[in-house]
Amino acid sequence: MLHMQDISKLYQTEMVQTQALREFNLTVNEGEFIAVTGPSGSGKTTFLNIAGLLEPYSAGQYMLDGVDVGKLNDNQRSDLRNQKIGFIFQGFNLIPDLNLFENIEVPLRYRGIKSKERKRRVEQCLEQVGLAGRAKHLPQQLSGGQQQRVAIARALAGEPRFLLADEPTGNLDSLMARQVMTLLEELNRTGTTIVMVTHDAELARRTPRNIQIVDGQVADFTLYQGTQMPRVDAQKPVRV
Amino acid sequence: MLEIKPIINTLMRSKAGALLLILQIAITLAIVSNALSIVSSRIDKLTEDTGYDEQGIIAFTVLTYNRNIDRAKQFKEDMITLKEIDGVKEAMTVSSIPLSSSGGSWTVSNHPDELQGKRVDSGYIQANHRIVNAFGLTISEGRDFEPQDETEGSQDQFPSVTIVSRAVANKLFGEGKGLNEFIYSGDNMMKIVGIVETMKSQWPDSKMGDNVVLIPIERSSMYQRVIVKAEPSKRAQVIKLIEPTLLENERQRVIMGVKGLDTAKAQTYQRDTLMIRMLMALIVFLAIITALGIFGLTHFNISKRTKQIGTRRALGARKSAIFRYFIVENTLVTLFGVAVGSVAAIYMGGQLMALYSIPALDWSIVLYTSLVMLVMSVLSVYQPARRAANISPSIATRSI
Amino acid sequence: MLVHYLDLAWRNIKLTPLISCLMVVAIGIGIGVTMTSLSVYHMMSSDPIPQKSSQLHAVQLQTMDEGQTWNTSDDVPTQLTYQDAKFLMENSPLTHRVAMMKSGAAVHLDSPDSVPFIEDVRITGRSFFSMFDLSFLHGGAWSEMQSEQAAPVAVIGEALAQRLFQRTDVLGESIYLDERKYEVIGVTAAWQPAIKFYDVNNGPFQRAEQLFIPFSHIEAYELHSWGNTNSWKNEEIRGREQFLQSEMVWLQFWVQIDSENALKNYQQFLLDYMAQQQKLGRFNRKQLAYNIKPVNEWLEYNHVIDPDNKILVGLSFMFLAVCLANILGMLLAKFLKRAPDAGVRRALGASKKQIFFQHLVEVALLGLLGCLVGILLAQVGLVGIRETMSVYVGIAKMDWTMLLLSPIIAISACLLAGLFPAWVVCKTSPATHLKVQ
Questions:
Q1: CB contact under 8 A, C37 and B296
Q2: Highest mean pLDDT: which range of B169-173, B219-223, C114-118, C235-239
Q3: Do both C6 and C74 map to the same domain?
Q4: Contact across the interface for B20 and C311, Cβ inside 8 Å
Q5: Are B16 and C332 in contact (CB under 8 A)?
Q6: A·B CB contacts under 8 A
Q7: Which of B35, B25, B57 is nearest to B294 (CA)?
Q8: CB atoms B392 and A97 under 8 Å
Q9: Number of domains in chain A
């Protein structure tokens, strides 16, 4: 599904050059559910951005579902994101001016799906996350957990084969976090490949496969299935 | 795919910014279209054909303060000297200068007892029989004056023929009629031997703007107007020579206001020129302000929505979709503003017409102004929309 | 606290120089345009002689036959016939009355190198100077006797004295008006009412004359009006005598009335005169009519304010409204961007009112800066008007009232525009912006 080989990412500012990823190698197979952990500044977000085609990389090769991403132009990358990738963001990133229905509809519109079909899919997704009947609400009228469920519904609406989740529970209390996690597990069971970036070791432990990024590289490539993973950093770091 | 419905929904949910823009666009349209309507009517007025050779004629006044001078004889001599100047084609005394807002007017009638007939107020110009040619007028019906038509002021004998402007003949005798009819004023009676289609009076901006009666009588008064017809290319040169030439003939007088007829006309229309300039300044400033407003507000909207633009990009929006979003959003707002503004403009035009006798606002001006405003709004939103399209999708994963 | 707010405001303005500049420019253009047209309107509609405007009255008589019309609202001619003016001048119960007209002459000195130039002349009564508040630098008006005898005496303005003699103390000097020799018996200080209210015939914004000679000279020297001469009747006019006795109207008549009683007496006097003239076949009307209008009423009656100017004032204020909508948008943007800052302040204990006030102070400061730009622009605009329309020299300018009004309009307009943005900022709860970070 996802294959990264020797991916490097350099950030060039006027003063400094920062190497965010160094010869990064990772393969994720179809139907996998993996958690990516790592300390703050390790390159998690950069990995996420590159994996989600949100940012170009400096060197290496990235194949997504058999497509060489490096050879795509901006429009092709947009289309690929739209068709194959679903995003769940840490800050939910719901569009405040749009109601739930319209929010979920956004990726479908970009795909050019007809209005009738859009309606069907949006309603189905709302149902799936348990928010049917609240289609007309605006994001700010919902709790954090509900907002994240909408965000998940939006990610699902496009029926993506690959789901990228960035700290999907980062802004939620533990009860809600567990609900969201359960939802993701269900999705994975239906065949969606999921890559979840998180700090939360406990959350990571629930996924079949964990990888850790340290200093822009995959530090540990062990399957921790069913075993205790060494505690990394359960504390949510303060971001400024 | 234009996303019109969600854009409208979004606009409805954050009204303040959109309302401000609509308000600005509406008022701007109302002001600009009415101002343009006034400007265009004033320009029409300024450029309207007066019938005269404005570029060739020089007009001035001679104040002969020495009462002992034989003015009739003096002016005869003067005209001969003036005609000797290089480039001068004609020179003669006239009772008043057309387009100059100064001169004589009277009431003429188609009946000896004016109370029983039709009456019309008209400017009159007294000059010798060559006046039609000197003014550069074209007789459209009838004939020009002949030498025997002319009388001299001192003989105290009023001429029996006249040439009038089309407007005078029409008002007294009906559309297209009047040639060989008689007109009366007081005890005087004159036969219309010629009609000039276009000939403006001394007060082109008044009710008697098109009404002129030419009377073939030559006078030479203490305060005497004179016209000189020159070749347009040599006119500037001639203007400089007039005062010294005349004073050389006779010093006991003052030559006043030597200027081209076009200059005299411009002075008569000073108010209109001022109005045109003021309104044009208003329009230009308004265009700048409104363009800045659209630009600024879009800029603000975009910086406020950076995160959602990134999110949209992450969700698969192409750059062009983001660009289009802002163009469409702005166009919708502008269209709405233009619709409100058109109503306001037409209402305002009606009010102006009722209060200040401004000509009616032509809807086509509103339409053109609206189109220009639409183009202008797209232009002012172009750069911010481009900037929005270039926002990186990776913004979506940043937590701040 | 205000000083603190001002300091904060200034810092905030410097913090966002581009948007602040745009706002100042927007206010500046709005104020510039508005003050340009408003200044002209103000001067056009101002009282040209405030200390005496309620005492000075223009007199009109309805001399025309029934059914004749004039371009005034009540069809009464604005000027008088010579015979009426002369009678009212010579037989008045009021001491301060003046019949007059504008004429002109070639002015020169009796020397070969003096080049004659044309100067407007006011032919008037001796009360003119005291009635219209002209002050003398030297000498004074002519006497009753000099007037009766049509003595060749003249009063000139200081600028004219300077032009002719390069000094102002020129009593006893001789000047020539056309071919007539005059003795200068008085020199007046410069006198230029903003509106030439006492004679609006040639346009209300013409320059005042600075050469004055007695009314009796009209008859004595056959002087002609350089103003308007209008007739409403077909009359056989051959020669000067018939002209003076005709029904043509060409003279202005003004009186100074100091009390209600004097007004009543004067009204009766006019009616008596007209009734007496009726017996001679004049004033052929069922209802005798006359007007005695004080200065400001007179100006309104003569439509002194150009309708174009009214339109411009209206459009300018609409323009200002556009600028305000513009500023409102920018303020909203600017303040919302700074909302977190306000949130911190709220968290630190600032009240809503204080936040609101702080933002309004900033808006007012922007208004003041914009006003300065606006006044400069208005000066440019007024120069443009004076260049385009030479007769507006006296009225296309900004007096103190307008100069002081500019900041008031600018600041209150900005405060109006700032109310909503300031309210939006102060109502945001302190928590909203703190927790995002």
A1: no
A2: B169-173
A3: no
A4: no
A5: yes
A6: 95
A7: B25
A8: no
A9: 1
Asked if B180 has any chain A CB less than 8 Å from its own CB, the reply is no
Strand, helix or coil for residue C386 = helix
CA distance C8 to C361: 9
B379 vs B385: CA distance, rounded Å: 10
Given B199, B234, B261, which residue is the final one in a domain? B261
What pLDDT does residue C430 have?
62
Contacts of C311 (CB under 8 A, 6+ apart): B38, B352, B356, B358
pLDDT in tens, A65-94: 888 988 899 899 999 989 889 988 888 888
Q: Quote the CA–CA distance of B29 and A122 in Å, as a whole number.
A: 42
DSSP state of C352: H
Residue B224 has pLDDT above 50, yes or no: yes
The pLDDT assigned to B1 comes to 53
Q: How far apart are CA A130 and CA A53, in angstroms?
A: 30
Residues C188, C251: one domain? yes
Q: How many structural domains are present in chain C?
A: 2
- The rounded distance, in Å, linking the Cα atoms of B314 and C25 is 39
Instruction: Enter the ipTM.
Output: 0.85
**Once rounded to an integer, what is the mean pLDDT over residues A123-134?**
86
- Provide the number of structural domains found in chain B: 2
Q: Which of C47, C46, C45, C42 is closest to C403 using CA atoms?
A: C42
CA–CA separation, A56 and A50 (whole Å): 6
Q: What angle do CA B76, B78, B79 make, to 5 degrees?
A: 70
Q: Mind listing the pLDDT tens digit for each residue in C258-311?
A: 999 999 999 999 999 999 999 988 998 888 999 999 999 999 999 988 888 899
Q: Which domain holds residue A176?
A: 2-93+160-220
Residue B394 is nearest to which of A54, A78, A83, comparing CB atoms? A54
B184/B285 same-domain check: no
Mapped onto helix, strand or coil, the DSSP state of residue B137 is coil
Q: How far is CA C6 from CA A44, C21, C435, in A?
A: 46, 17, 29
Is the C-alpha dihedral spanning C351, C356, C360, C362 positive or negative? positive
Say whether both B222 and B78 belong to one domain: yes
Query: What is the rounded CA–CA span in Å between residue A197 and residue A184?
Result: 13
Q: Give the whole-angstrom CA distance, residue B300 versus residue B297.
A: 5
- Interchain CB contact of B6 with A (< 8 Å): yes
CB contact under 8 A, A81 and B396: no
Q: Under a CB-based contact definition with an 8 Å cutoff, are residues C174 and C110 in contact?
A: yes
| C132 and C38 co-located in one domain | no
Same domain for C42 and C73: no
d(CA C345, CA C348): 5
Q: By the 8 A CB rule, do C60 and C76 touch? A: yes
Whether C330 maps to a domain, the answer reads yes
Residues spanned by the domain of C146: 63-256
pTM exceeding the 0.80 threshold for the entire prediction: yes
User: Please, are residues B121 and B137 in contact by the beta-carbon 8 Å criterion?
Assistant: no
* Domain CATH code at residue A167: 3.40.50.300
Least confident of A100-114, C288-302, C402-416: A100-114
Rounded Cα distance between C225 and C100, Å, is: 10
Q: Answer with the one of B228, B261, B294 that is the final residue of a domain.
A: B261
- Written as one string, the DSSP assignment of A100-164 is HHHHHHHHHHHHT--HHHHHHHHHHHHHHTT-TT-TT--GGGS-HHHHHHHHHHHHHHT--SEEE
Distance, in angstroms, between B342 CA and closest chain A CA? 29
Do B17 and B43 fall within a single domain? yes
Q: What is the mean pLDDT of residues C159-182?
A: 93
pLDDT score, position B399:
63
pLDDT single digits (tens) C214-240: 999 999 998 999 988 888 887 878 888
B390 close to A (CB below 8 A):
no
Instruction: Please give the residue range of the domain that contains residue B369.
Output: 4-47+270-397
